[in-house]
Write a structure and sequence with these properties.
This protein is an alpha/beta fold. It has 15 helices and 17 strands. The C terminus is likely disordered. The chain binds adenosine monophosphate.
């Protein structure tokens, strides 16, 4: 199918041609006709599948016809879990809507100054992209007029659920017209998401895009077995010396690790900086702008901050620490191989990571080939069945009787004492014998419900 068959407005098609897209992705092919026909949809689609255009193109198509209600409020509302994703959605709106006359896109994000947002909201808005918490503030202060809202998009709804935003989302929905069209995008469509959909969507069409259909085919995935932290650092140093690496995102498990690693890399002369949820919005934006403009070669990030980063120059993603959830792996590696470019995703896995590795491979349906750098070989190979090593990894010596060592320097999987990564809502405390305990509250606003 070609984009011409989708009956989108010619000025939107023109922007698609400018973007260099030749054919719609599966999610676009399935979602756009349903949306143009006015249906609600709930779609399972990962990042990297082209899901942003799948909702933004029909949203812009709506804007090409005059509104039925006359007011200054938004006609399209997109809710996202993170500020970075919101900014990416806003950029997509500007990119695909650039030939349409006067499409005003406004982002309302936490951590940004209120006076500027108040000013933006006092002017006519077509597309409002927002994180739920800050939007609620503005709604309560009576600053938003939803009387002409036609479409509401819940992007990464599973993540909003995980982060405890879903009550806010429902309150926002109740402030919008009941006859709106509602779209829900989520990595997975499970029971919890179904309940949300039941409350907010009207007889939605379900669209399922398998993880394998995510556009990962242009990303080469590699695995390096590692012995300890110092081994990881030496491997990272080796990878960063590769001239083919133009820009990289290195993922760590915690914010504190991101800071430490970025500082270490910077002191070794790398153009490196950290990005995580504890930084002010201004610092995050400054770092991302630097990355986008090529002033930064290595970004060391946690999952929450890296969501939505769409920088074409990212040639490598390096999982310094493996993610705990398989969906996050797909999100992370989708930061490379953007817009059809080739990308390389390297993951470090230690003895503790066997189960995670298996979950990731099951989720993507792809085995990650293990690689060895001469001179930096791991000492041990994980036990069969316990380490998740793909079969046929001949490069590493296998010693059944030995177990993997812990990271050197007393670094536990979640290193810092009492460190908490808000993206996951899990706290870890270390006792004075170096044991790490997971402390999680079922009441945590970030608790994962699935
Ligand atoms: P998303 O899943 O929305 O994060 O999009 C992933 C990437 O795919 C973005 O860099 C888009 O610019 C790109 N993209 C979206 N639709 C298409 C398409 N039809 N053909 C090629 N690239 C696309």
């Amino acid at each position: 199918m070609s984009f011409e068959n989708l009956n989108l407005h010619p000025l939107i098609l023109k922007a698609i041609v400018d973007s260099g897209y030749t054919n719609p992705t599966p999610i676009q092919e399935q979602a756009i006709p349903e949306l143009l026909a006015g249906h609600d949809i709930m779609a399972s689609a990962q990042t990297g599948t082209g899901k942003t255009a799948a909702f933004m193109l029909p949203a812009l198509h709506k804007l090409a016809t005059p509104p039925k209600v006359h007011s200054r409020g938004p006609r399209v509302l997109v809710l996202t879990p993170t500020r970075e994703l919101a900014l990416q959605v806003s950029e997509a709106a500007a990119k695909y809507g650039k030939h349409l006359p006067r499409v005003k896109v406004v982002s309302i994000l936490g951590g940004m100054p209120y006076p500027l947002q108040n000013k933006l909201l006092s002017q006519p808005v077509d597309i409002l992209v927002a994180t739920p918490g800050r939007l609620i503030d503005h709604i309560q202060r009576g600053r938003i007029d939803f009387s002409r809202l036609e479409m509401m998009v819940l992007d990464e709804a599973d993540r909003m659920l995980d982060m405890g935003f879903i009550d806010d989302v429902e309150r926002i929905a109740s402030a919008t017209p009941a006859n709106r069209q509602t779209l829900l995008f989520s990595a997975t469509l499970d029971g919890a998401i179904d309940k949300v959909a039941l409350r907010l969507l009207k007889i939605p069409k379900r669209i399922q895009i398998a993880a394998q259909q995510a556009r990962l085919d242009n990303i080469e995935q590699r695995l390096h077995y590692v012995d300890d932290l110092s081994h990881k650092n030496r491997l990272l140093d080796h990878l960063l010396r590769d001239m083919a690496l133009k820009q990289a995102i290195v993922f760590t498990a915690t914010k504190r690790d991101a800071d430490t690693l970025a500082d270490n890399l910077a002191s070794q002369g790398h153009e490196a900086a950290a990005l995580h949820g504890d930084m002010s919005q201004r610092d995050r934006t400054r770092t991302l702008t630097k990355l986008r403009h090529g002033g930064l070669r290595v970004l060391v990030a946690t999952d929450v901050a890296a969501r939505g980063i769409d920088v074409v120059g990212i040639t490598h993603v390096i999982n310094f620490d493996l993610p705990k959830f398989a969906e996050d792996y797909v999100h992370r590696i989708g930061r490379t191989g953007r817009a059809g470019a080739a990308g390389i995703a390297v993951s470090f896995a230690s003895g503790k990571d066997g189960v995670n590795l298996k979950k990731i491979e099951r989720f993507t349906g792809q085995q990650i080939a293990s690689h060895v750098v001469p001179g930096l070989e791991p000492r041990f190979k994980p036990r069969p069945g316990g380490g998740g090593a793909p079969r046929g990894t001949p490069n590493v010596a296998h010693k059944r009787s030995r177990t993997w060592s812990n990271d050197a320097g007393g670094r536990s999987a979640n290193s810092a004492n009492g460190n908490r990564d808000n993206s996951r809502g899990r706290s870890f405390v270390n006792d004075n014998r170096g044991n790490s305990f997971r402390v999680s509250s079922t009441q945590s606003p970030y608790a994962r419900t699935k």
